Amino acid sequence: MKRGLLIDDSNRIPFTFEGRHMTCFSGDTIASALWRNNIKILSRSFKYHRPRGILSLAGYDANTLVDETNSTNTHAERQKITPGMWVRALHYSGSLESDRLAVLGMLSPFLSAGFYYKAFYKPFNSWKFWEPIIRRLAGLGTVNIEAATIMTDKVNDFCDVAVVGGGPAGISAAISAAKSGQSVCLLDKNPVIGGSLNWLGGGEAEKDRLIADLQAQTDVRVMPDWEAKSVFDGSFVIAAKSKQLLRLRAKKVVIATGARSLPAVFINNDLPGVMLTSAAMRLAHYFDLSCGSCAVMLACDETDAIAARTLRGYGVNIAAVFNLCEEQSEWADF
């Protein structure tokens, strides 16, 4: 499987993170660019200032929110680096690596959800004193009130079948609809279609077959980088891409957004260095980056076994694999 599917390693792009000048490859997202520069902490959590790093690398979580040139609270896993972009981590005091306010984590047993609403409203009108202090301690990005207004083009379109999701299920649905004589729009939020076949490993043959069959259809429009935001009654789809907004009306809508991995529950599972197996595979196949030199894996099905073998081939030492399912499973041969 091709490594670095989304990057052009012949084209270096300059950017700035926390005042430090760095470079990355064309196609890198903010998260992959920082990982490429050996930066594992991207921001801090809003309440206890705990360090945050890559978890899903797909924008499924709020771990990698940052401020950047054009917006605040941007998903670093989804936003591509542009030349000259500046990026700032969120919510720390002192330095990102040594946040003075991380001491708040030690007080967590006493700081229940919404505690400030219960503790700081007496005596009468005292909230006016506490509010600015609490707002400085909590919250995330900073809104730039001087930011330029971004004009968004509105695009209206029509089709018989709108397919949301360009993975194997979505491509198959688009092919089936097209073969029945219907016009199809295939939307996917990623720069390339294929879904998990792009990064899981072992799916190259199936992907090539599906893409060839899709390209053979005459009335299918493949729309990468278009993220469906909402689906309304009447098969009305709202999607966004960069500075464009798509209003798509269809006779039918097929939702084929696939499945998501869930993080295991254990103490400190939110800290940098803990990531989903799918994120490690995306780092490798999308950006030609290793998740680390040594890893411990939790496995529960055949896809995890494929990932373990793939990462070993990528130079990652899998120190241990904890099989959470039947030990005698046929797939559990690492």
What does this structure look like?
The protein is of the alpha/beta class and 334 residues long. The protein is built from seven helices and 15 strands. The strands form four sheets. The protein has a six-stranded mixed β-sheet. It is globular and about 70 Å long. The mean pLDDT is 89.
Name a few traits of the molecule.
334 residues, alpha/beta, six-stranded mixed beta sheet, five-stranded mixed beta sheet, 7 helices
Brief sketch in words of this structure:
With 334 residues, the protein is α/β, with parallel strands linked by helices.
Question: Cα-atom Rg, whole angstroms?
Answer: 22 Å
Sheet with the most strands: spatial strand order: 10-9-8-13-12-11
Helix and strand content put the structural class at alpha/beta
Helix-strand pattern, N to C? EEHEEEEEHHEHEHEEEEHEHE
Helix tally equals: 7
Q: What fraction strand?
A: 25-35%
The end-to-end span amounts to 19 Å
